[in-house]
Amino acid sequence: MYYIKKSITIIILQILFVNQSITQNIELSLEQLCQNSKAVIIAETKSFYSYQSFDKKRVYTDITIEVKSSLKGDIKPNEKIKITYYGGTINGITTAVIGSPTFKKNQISILFLTEKKEFSPGYHFYRIVGDSQGKFNVNSTIIGERKTVKREQINMPLKLNDTSERVKMDADQNIEFDSFISLIKSFINK
After folding, report:
1. Which of 44, 47, 72, 147 could make an SS bond with 40 (beta carbons 3.0 to 4.6 A apart)?
2. CATH class of the structural domain 26-188
3. Residue 99's beta-bridge partner residues?
């Protein structure tokens, strides 16, 4: 019985340690997101594919997105790229990491990307900078006649830069789309 309790304790400690190392992120400002990204794009989610690692111990998901517009980097409109992240659903069982971005089919997002790797012809693989901090959803709801952007899973104001200044948002944490794009371009062009 002692060995079983000790084994369970070790497993729990390993899980806690792994989860903390994966999900601990320092809050990134919009300026840092722009600086740490090799590419900043507006893209539409096209498909998902979840699979197990070779050792059958982890689940990963490849998300195929189609680029609508590129604000930074060499990714071109209509190019399809893949984003791979830890977690997903296989046979009704879901593995998730707190802080990982979520995707919905046909959702339009602004993505801050890094670590370009080409694994198969025609596809490039990327990682989102700062996990969910580097994903902003373009809302289909319209304020007046303008599109808005909302942070992924983070319900607090976005830091503009290293000062305490924050990006202006409405009461629902929406940012006016054109203003947000202008801010991104101003940091990219610095």
Report:
1. 72
2. mainly beta
3. none
- List residues bridging with 135 in a β-sheet: 111
Residue 171 has pLDDT above 90, yes or no: no
Alpha helices of 26-127 — where are they, by DSSP H? 30-35
For residue 105, what are its two tokens?
């089919």
How far apart CA 149 and CA 157 sit, in angstroms, is: 12
State the alpha helices, DSSP H only, in 24-136: 30-35
* Each residue's pLDDT tens digit, 63-110: 999 999 999 998 899 999 888 888 888 888 888 888 788 889 999 999
pTM summary value: 0.78
Which is nearest to 109 in space by CA: 183, 32, 44, 29? 44
Domain boundaries, the chain: 26-188
At 177-189, the pLDDT tens digits run 888 899 999 999 8
Burial class of 126 by CB neighbour count within 10 A (0 to 12, 13 to 18, 19+): buried
